[in-house]
Amino acid sequence: MPEGPEIRRAADSIEQVLKGQAMAKVQLMQPKLSKHNKTLQGHTVLSVETRGKALLTHFDHGWSLYSHNQLYGRWYIMPRGELPETQRKLRVALHTDDHSALLYSASDISVWQTENLWAHHFLSKIGPDILSPALTAKAIDKRLQERQFSGKSLSSLYLDQAFLAGIGNYLRSEILFAAGINPLLKARELNAAQRARLGRQTLAISQRSYKMEGVTQPVKRYRQLLKGGLSFEQARFAVFGREAKLCHLCGQPVKRIEANARNLFYCGGCQT
């Protein structure tokens, strides 16, 4: 499933072609939503917002299109009149005179009056977006100590969208590694220095993944690994997907466990 950085990059691409543009044609392919084609058609896109893994396209007349890619959804940006080569099913098509933003395969789609989005079943429950400029390491530290979160293991908490929205499986492993914290610890078992470090790395790794298109390694190390002959997929992560391979920092083998029905990767040397 795409995580927060991937959804934000998709939103950036959509904004490039839709922001400030009136919709020449809107196609919501699900029968229950087709009545809203006329609601949105002819109106101008003000912005494309992300909240965790959800994407919100806001229009100038107070309506918004909500979409969540879930596991298989994907946005394509195409010249108007062209379609991508894919076997996926088209769910949403937003057309300007020159371009189209096309959403395939996603099923969690709805149209809302913007002022009522607070009542959406998903949006009403999620925590702060990991890429929000307003989110700080101190705010994360504070949330780690809140009663509803402090009793959870970090392996669970760092998939909980109510804690922070946008973190998924690869970010969970990479953030905990960068902070040097064992994933089986509970939030309340962390000391002040560990909480502060975890807050800083949560922001740093999320921002790096967004800016570098999925790379979570420090830039210098990532470039050195590429020069050494590794591919993008082999060099982008410190621990995720690297079971039994040696840690770039301490040389110990990376381990894999199952946590919350998902694979979690960590270094037994760096995350004791």
Automatic annotation (TrEMBL):
Q: Which UniProt keywords apply?
A: DNA damage, DNA repair, DNA-binding, Endonuclease, Glycosidase, Hydrolase, Lyase, Metal-binding, Multifunctional enzyme, Nuclease, Zinc, Zinc-finger
Q: Where is the Formamidopyrimidine-DNA glycosylase catalytic domain?
A: 2-111
The record ties this protein, via Gene3D superfamilies, to:
1.10.8.50, MutM-like, N-terminal (3.20.190.10)
Q: Name one GO molecular function term.
A: damaged DNA binding
Show where the FPG-type domain sits.
238-272
Among SUPFAM superfamilies, the record links this protein to: Glucocorticoid receptor-like (DNA-binding domain) (SSF57716), N-terminal domain of MutM-like DNA repair proteins (SSF81624), S13-like H2TH domain (SSF46946)
The record's listing under InterPro entries reads: DNA_glyclase_Znf_dom_DNA_BS, FPG_cat, FPG_N, H2TH_FPG, Ribosomal_uS13-like_H2TH, Znf_DNA_glyclase/AP_lyase
Q: What is its EC number?
A: 4.2.99.18
What's the superkingdom here?
Bacteria
Q: Which GO terms describe its biological process?
A: base-excision repair
Q: Give yes or no: UniProt keyword Lyase.
A: yes
Q: Which reaction does it catalyse?
A: 2'-deoxyribonucleotide-(2'-deoxyribose 5'-phosphate)-2'-deoxyribonucleotide-DNA = a 3'-end 2'-deoxyribonucleotide-(2,3-dehydro-2,3-deoxyribose 5'-phosphate)-DNA + a 5'-end 5'-phospho-2'-deoxyribonucleoside-DNA + H(+)
Could you say which residues form the signal peptide? none
What family does this belong to? Belongs to the FPG family.
The identity of this protein, by name, is DNA-(apurinic or apyrimidinic site) lyase
